[in-house]
Amino acid sequence: xxxSSDSLKTWVSDQLMSMLGYSQPTLVQYVIALAKQATxxxxxxxxxxxxxxxxSSSSDTLxxxxxxxxxxxxxxxxDADDDDEKRRVKRRTITGDEEGDDDGSESEEERLVRDQRxxxxxxxxxxxxxxxxxxxxxxxxxxxxxxITALRRVSRQEYLKKREEKKVEELRDDIEDEEYLFDGVKxxxxxxxxxRHKKELYExxxxxxxxxxxxxxxxxxxxxxxxxxxxxxxxxxxxVALKRCRDQECxxxxxxxxxxxxxxxDYQIGKAMxxxxxxNKRQISDDDxxxxxxxxxxxxxxxxxxxxxxDNEEVSKLLEKSKAKSALERLQEERKSLPIYSYxxxxxxxxxxxxxxxxxxxxxxxxxxxxxxxxxxxGYTKRGKIGCTQPRRVAAMSVxxxxxxxxxxxxxxxxxxxxxxxxxxxxxxxxxxxTDGMLLREFxxxxxxxxxxVLMVDEAHERTLSTDILFGLVKDVxxxxxxxxxxxxxxxxxxxxxxxxxxxxxxxxFPGRRYPIEINxxxxxxxxxxxxxxxxxxxxxxxxxxxxxxVFLTGQEEIETVEENLKHRTKGLGTKIAELIICPIYANLPxxxxxxxxxxxxxxxxxxxxxxxxxxxxxxxxxxKYVIDPGFCKMKSYNPRTGMESLLVAxxxxxxxxxxxxxxxRTGPGKCFRLYTVCSYxxxxxxxxxxxxxxxxxxxxxxxxxxxxxxLLKFDFMDSPTPEALMEALELLFSLNALNERxxxxxxxxxxxxxxxxxxxxxxxxxxxxxxCSDEMISIAAMLSVxxxxxxxxxxxQVHADNARMNxxxxxxxxxxxxxxxxxxxxxxxxxxxxxxxxYVQVRSMKRARDIRDQLEGLLERVGxxxxxxxxxxxxxxxxxxxxxxPHSARLQTNGSYxxxxxxxxxxxxxxxxxxxxxxRWVLYHELVLTTKAYMRQVTELKREWLVDIAxxxxxxxxxxxxxxxxxxxxxxxxx
DNA sequence: GAGCACTGC
Length: 976
Fold this sequence. Notes:
This protein is α/β, with parallel strands linked by helices.
């Protein structure tokens, strides 16, 4: 059976070879996979030509190919099923041997793992379906991929050499009757044998031709094949080369080994035209060469989004007038120039008439800064504060600063802001900007928001977890407090949804200030979006007018590769092209380096910003004219069934595609290059799934419960989380004793809710009171909640970094204690930055940990926990951790992997853990993440008795039995 | 022996 699958693969490979000139196992697999999915031959043809843009072989050939493959595929399907079955049987016998027997639970565990894998696979396939053959096409042929975007001098030579080698290979295959054909010329075996190098090849061929010829139709001809997309006619190219070769001989009397290349260059130089902007026009001398690309990415210009500038003349007049005035007056004039100003009275009227108003206005319209001021001027602050929530700390701070400036008051007096670790308000404050999470916390103290007269939820379209919860709460409050005005402000897309949610609230929309943006899609899907992005950057750099470029990538790794690649390709070019300044930016990048992107671009140079999603919302950069959007981002998803998180590269939504596009039109007309097709765009989801649907809800549930909301299933969510996720969270809280069996909040739960932490961490802190180690516990909690960015591991010093990290693990104390060691060592050095560098620890993360620790210390008092230190009793500390994390325990299996206790599933210790080599029998883990395997991160050894002692309701003795005894009893059962 | 988008309390 296996042979039929192999033969199909070989056959497909051959076919691809003849159609494309190359083939690769992954590509073969991919094509077969497509054939499996296809419903008919026509469908398959479509799929193939859509998915593999490069398969633009003549349609007849393609059709014949698909017909054939379609009849052959069923063979493979049988085969595959069979294999699967075999594997399953095999696996079953293996586990049976090892584990004794317990088929029920074993196969369930397997099913869970398999489900997960399948889900991920499906996800991967879906990703591909939207954008094309990204992953599988990637390794198709390193050379080809490289060609697509390589600048001529960098890889043209290599490319041609390879092409030629291929041609020679083909020649070799064509041997017939001891005759060797090349370009219609017969060669002897000896001559053929000498075809080691192009030079020789040309030499021989040329001589032969000269003696035989004369076929003068072979004039020097520009190979028009270059102009057609996708296909390059090798024959024509060789013709050109030969002709060129001959010319060289005649003119110079000397053989030029790169004659073919020269011909090609000449042709391209004649064809291409390097355009510079008018500002830095340069004289192009003869020996200058142009940048040309083997395969152009065809972009289709589909639409131009019009910009709208409200009352341009009026605005400029106002600005003109304001020049001569004082700073404060000028600010007032500027305020009047904002688009929102002309709608001021209507807006105030609408707010007067309705309790809830949905406001739609694009960024830059001034809604965040102006509306609260208008309301203040209209006297709303006499009854109470005006609150305005922002999803981000920086936004809250900077907007507050701006408004206080405009109003001519000191920040923190009439205008203030409130964010975690920093409350910049006073009794005088009437305009309060804050993060949405902060308002959520305020709800705990003031459930009816009595001190507020107006509440504005800004950037509602972002749908952060906190805003989503706020919606439900605020809607409820508004019903009981008719005097409370509610403003929901959002970008265009969701407006109606918001309006529906708030009982058909009126939508008040006004234009922002925006310039037209031209949107370009690719004609065919790009196999590798990274290469396509690099190509597009270079293309823009060479061909388009001055203006900075912005590239959206998914993560640090991608940014680094693209940066390297761009540097490499522009390096050897010196002054031949304008300078390209590459600015990477992602959240983990040290702040000093981040600020680089805000430096103005020097005259004559061009800046290219490589950014993650951080730029989609969090920061704006001026002067961006071109946006390159590959259409992907990393997204976290959560599986409540297994409690596993995973971070996957996923296609973005239409909403974020448009958000990204908008980055181009801030300061002038711009262009957006989407590295996917119009069809792909139409297939995208309208909106990104709100966070509430893809996250662990334990914390949310705890907050809602402590606000007195009991029936969570009936809570008015704008998008309800799955009941499964809610139940999972409730169960967890119940097992932590934060809820009683009726689902009511316990005293313990109320104390836990005070901490801005995951419930399990909060529980560990509350429990540390009993073990007299609260001092240590809050340090650990702070370190854990800064995340995984504590250790710094540069690529070139991985060994050193790993050694430094292992120093904290001496005695195999486990990762939690290691984190404590890190914190304490840092504290002992007086919070030294130098110490951090020496130990490969990130200063920024440590400072954050210190802030969090300080906050937690303050909260200890509030919930009545004494700050006690018990540094030498590691067991107590571990027991305190266990009190919070007992649901996250795992037992070592005989095969060296672990198995979590509830729900049972396979897991491994993450290699970055200090215990990765130690493999204790029982472990506790902080989180379970699915990447290539299910990994437990931050692991500490555990004694199984603790589980039974600390959480008797959760673990019965039989759960916590050692694998040895378990095996025995299982064996006995089997015998019975 | 592995890779971590972005927020927020």
